[in-house]
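Same chain as my last thread, 191 residues:
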Amino acid sequence: FFKKDGSKMICLYNGEPLEVEGRTLLLSLAQDITAQKEIEAQLRESETSLKFAQQIAHVGQWTWDLRTDQITWSEEANHLFGLSPEEFGSSLSSVIEKAIHPEDRGMVRAANQAVFDEQKTAALEQRVIWPDGSIHTIWAVPARQETDENGRIIKLTGIIQDITERKEVEASLRERETLRFSQGDIFTLSL
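reply #2:
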């Protein structure tokens, strides 16, 4: 529909047959839902922008419900672990077993246990193994916590970021620096 001023109006129609004096009439009601549809469109646009930003930055979002051990991930978070949502599972325990590097699992479990025992959260660097066997380094940061009436953490929300490239650059720089120093030592000894 268009209003008298020419602006577009989106309506939701409901109708029911109604018997009046032996005749069937249609009783209908139209509700203007233009504002609701505009808000929905803005929300879809915002979600699309967020997904794009997460892909570009290699950052994903996660929420862990400590009461159920259930974890939910953004689409990019799934990608950072190299798993599809179906492969991922929804419990943190299954994610640790399926994706975290075996040498890092103990550290991850200890950090998670500290949330339960000490109500302590911390950023954590960990390696993940993708199904193709490649190893990636991610950085997980708890950013927001929800507590129960006793002040105990019941839900954590945070981000994860792929820092593999940065770790590779750091390793390359260390290697180059080591080589430079060892060559300097050889040069000094040869004088």
